[in-house]
Amino acid sequence: MQKFHSHGKLLITGEYVVLDGAVALALPTKFGQQMEVTEIPETVIEWKSLDREDKVWFEDSFKISDLNQEVLPTSEVSKMLFLALRSAAKRNQQLFKGEKGYQIITKTDFPREWGLGTSSTLIANLAKWTDVDAFELLETTFGGSGYDVAVALQGSAITYRRTPAENVIFKATFDPPFKDRLFFVFLNKKQNSRESIVHYRQQEKATLDIAIEKISNLTQSILTCTTLAEFELLIEVHESIISTLTGLKKVKNELFPDYPGAVKSLGGWGGDFVLATGSDEDMEYFRKKGYSTILSFEEMILSN
C-alpha cells in the first residue's frame, strides 16, 4: 500500500486578482486529505472517498481500458476524477501498464463544506502518486489559478504569482507576533460568485493593472508587518480594493458592522471562512450571532 497526504489552504491575500498575476499569500492548514493506493489483480480503478466521519460520500469504478476513451461519466464528481486519471495516463505512459489495477481510498480530515481544498489536495495526491505535473492535472480538470495546489504540494506558507509562462512560487514565513490575536470564523454560507466575477471581468485593463500592483504590494507588507494595528489597516485596504473590483460589500460592513476588530474575506467572497482580529473574548461576539465554528490561528494553520 502507498500513502499520500496533502494539506489544505487558506488564501490570505489576492482573491480574484491571483487569476491575473497578483502576488498572493496562501497558508497551509493543519487539515488535509490522505490517499491510500493498493494494487489489485483486476484492471480497474476502484475509488472510494470518505469524509472525516469515515462515511462514504463518493464511490465509483473505472476500467483502465476506458481511460483512452472520449466518452465521459455523467456524474460531475466521476467526470472530474476520470479526466484527472485520463490526463495522468496520457502523461505517464507506464502508469497503467500490465494486468493490474488499483483500489484507492481518500479521506479528508475536515468537513468538505469548509472549503479548505478537497479538490486541490486530491490533485496534489494524484500528482504525487502518478509522478505527473500537478498543474497539468489541474488544467485538465478543475482549472483555477493553482495557488491551492501549490500550497498542497509545498506544505508551507507561500507567495504565488501566476504568469503566462510559469507559476512563480516562493516559500514564505508568516509567523507574526500577533498571531494569537488572529482567528477564523466559518460563515457556512455558499455564495454564487458568478455576478461578482462578471463585474470583476468588466474592469478596464488599466484599473485592473493598478489593483494587481496594489494587492501585490499589500501581500509583501502583510508578510513583514509587526503590529496588529498595521495588519488591520493593511487588510482593510485590501478589502476596499477587492470590494471595488467585484461590486460586493465588504463582509464586515454587511455582517459585522459593530465588531471592534477587523474582518477579512478569504478566497471567494461571501462564504467559507473569514479572518478576524481580536481576543478570545471577542470570539463570543461571533458565537452570539450564531457562528459556532471558530478556530484560532494555532488550531487552523500549519506552522513552518
Total count of strands: 11
Question: What kind of oligomer do you see?
Answer: single chain
CA-based shape: globular
Structural class call reads alpha+beta
Q: Helix content range of the residues, please? A: 25-40%
Mean pLDDT: 94
CATH class of the largest domain: Alpha Beta
Number of domains: 2
Spatial separation of the terminal alpha carbons? 29 Å
CATH topology grouping of the largest domain: Ribosomal Protein S5, domain 2
Write the CATH architecture name of the largest domain: 2-Layer Sandwich
Low-confidence stretches: none
The largest pleated sheet is described as: 7 strands, mixed
Q: Rounded to an integer, what's the Rg over CA atoms? A: 20 Å
Task: Name a few traits of the molecule.
304 residues; Ribosomal Protein S5, domain 2; Alpha-Beta Plaits; 2 domains; 7-stranded mixed beta sheet; 4-stranded antiparallel beta sheet; 10 helices; 11 strands; 35% helix
Description:
With 304 residues, this protein is an alpha+beta fold. The protein folds into two domains: 2-171, Ribosomal Protein S5, domain 2 (2-Layer Sandwich); 179-300, 2-Layer Sandwich (Alpha-Beta Plaits), CATH 3.30.70. The chain has helices spanning 76-91, 118-130, 134-139, 147-154, 194-201, 205-224, 228-246, 251-255, 283-288, 297-300, and strands at residues 2-11, 24-40, 44-50, 56-63, 101-108, 158-162, 167-171, 182-186, 263-265, 273-277, 294-296. The longest helix is centred in the C-terminal third of the chain and has 20 residues, at 205-224. The mean pLDDT is 94.
